[in-house]
Amino acid sequence: MNQKNFSGSTFKRCSCKNPTTGRRLGTACPKIKRRNGAWSSDHGTWFFQAELPHQHDGTRRTRRRGGYATQTEAQGQLDKMASLVKAAEPHGSTAVTRVGDLIDNKLQTGEPFPPPADIAKQLHAETQNLGNIPTVAEWLTTWLSRRKKLRGATKLSYSGHIRLWLEPHLGHYRLDALTVEHIASMFDAMTERNEAIIAAKASDDPEIRKSVRGVRVMGPATMQRYRATLRTALNAAIRDPNINITFNPAAYVELDSGKRPKALLWTPSRVERWQRTGQKPSRVMVWTPDQVGRFLDHAEGHPYYVLLHLIAYRGLRRGEACGLPWWDVDLAAGSITITTAFVQVGWKAEFGEPKSEASGRTVALDSASVEVLRAQRRRQEALRQLAGADWVEQGIVCTEPDGRPLQPAKLSDAFHVIAEAAGLPPVRLHDLRHGAATLMLAAGADLKVVQELLGHSSITITADTYTHVLPELAHQTAEAAASMVPRGKERKLLPAPPRRPGNAGGHRR
């Protein structure tokens, strides 16, 4: 028998206590053994300690029971448990874990163990009837290996979901045995983890707070992504002709919506509150046009300025900007075409296709952006001559000094350094892309035009993101329009109508 699946030992204990401390004497009791070291036959009772097969999540399962008159009785219980585990081992780890559950249940209820032959017969029959239905863990591995055309970042995300939660919590179930309740229990565990993190961060103990420093809770959107991964994998299993399942329980698990956070402008009142409390009103904050201008003023002259300019003015994604090749730039026509992206995948970066079909688009350039690109071409030519034979030609608009592609993470780091130096309220580099949308909205563009500029696959995404920005920009636009009308210094307003006698301070009925 595989020793890691089961082990056990026997020992003897009595109920004698130390008269001073009140604690049990245990093996220190002088009556529990004879003078020759042998166990006393008339004092104490026998116990066993069993290491059952690990639970589904891999945690140990140690059980102790006592009250047996002889060592033979205690050892007999261990032998019965060992025989049950041995009967399950030919049927795989899932069967072993299930037998561990059975043993655990019988120990708790006090019921006798079934004969090992009955367990072996039952497991054999199940194996014959189930055919080739895999466990959730087996299927997730197969499903991911078949997804040959996944983007690197997407595959990394799927792998993380499977490794961190899906396999540890659900991997031991057969596909046809997986239920809505099983999946809901996994999300309950996520919620309990969140509560533990929140409590630890609020603890008075500095060591406890330190233990969760940098640890983030899992929000509704993250949980939705986990469910989406599982739902996609199970849908693929339903379509597989070799797997006889027709129900996808992941589609019926109720979770918080995890809706896209609303973008909010950094208005003066919000900036003041942030400076006072350090709190952001929303995860997605957007600079006003004035703040975008202040940022670009501080960024001008930086080696990555051309990329920051294109993101702020024309709404390119980080990967689209870092991977933009010169052959997709038409300065004469004043446009660029998005056909590729250089995206971060873990600690590495790789070239790939744009994020979606809508992301492959042609972006019109304003005259200022055209001039910035012309200046970048002159700067890059100077770098090429300086590097000489060490220059690595990639044809990319913005590169390292030797021509190699710029790591996207370095662009993010530079963005945050410049924004902090400019004294601006915090936004993400991705939110600088929202700045392009705010500029267009402030100029009166409709959402459809903004959708096409940003490469959103649906106008719903654009509307959900900028619903809160539109009214604030509309107010600013109204004030700007009103300020364009010249007025005299002294404005003659109509006098207020006289009040009717007998109704001072009151309202007419």
Give a brief rundown of this model.
This protein is 48% helix and 9% strand. It is mainly alpha-helical. The protein folds into 3 domains: 7-130, no CATH class; 136-252, DNA polymerase, domain 1 (Orthogonal Bundle); 264-481, Orthogonal Bundle (hpI Integrase, Chain A).
The CATH topology of the largest domain is given as: hpI Integrase, Chain A
> Terminal Cα separation, in Å?
95 Å
Trace the largest sheet across and list its strands. Answer: 1-2-3
The biggest beta sheet reads: 3 strands, antiparallel
**Domain count:** 3
Q: Briefly, what CATH class of the largest domain?
A: Mainly Alpha
Q: Report the average pLDDT across residues.
A: 82
What is the CATH superfamily label of the largest domain? Answer: Intergrase catalytic core
Q: What is the name of the CATH architecture of the largest domain?
A: Orthogonal Bundle
Uncertain spans, ≥5 residues at pLDDT below 50? 504-509
Which structural category do the helix and sheet elements fall into? mainly alpha
What is the number of strand segments? 10
Strand content: 5-15%
**Computed CA radius of gyration, to the nearest angstrom:** 34 Å
What secondary-structure arrangement, pairings included, does this model have?
Blueprint: E1 7-13, E2 45-52, E3 61-68, H1 71-88, H2 93-109, H3 116-130, H4 136-146, H5 152-170, H6 180-201, H7 206-211, H8 220-239, E4 264-265, H9 268-277, E5 285-286, H10 289-299, H11 305-314, H12 318-322, E6 329-330, E7 335-337, E8 341-345, E9 348-352, E10 362-364, H13 367-387, H14 408-421, H15 429-442, H16 447-454, H17 459-466, H18 469-483
Parallel strand pairs: 4-5
Antiparallel strand pairs: 1-2, 2-3, 6-7, 7-10, 8-9
Helix pairs in contact: 1-2, 1-3, 4-5, 4-8, 11-13, 11-15, 15-16, 16-17
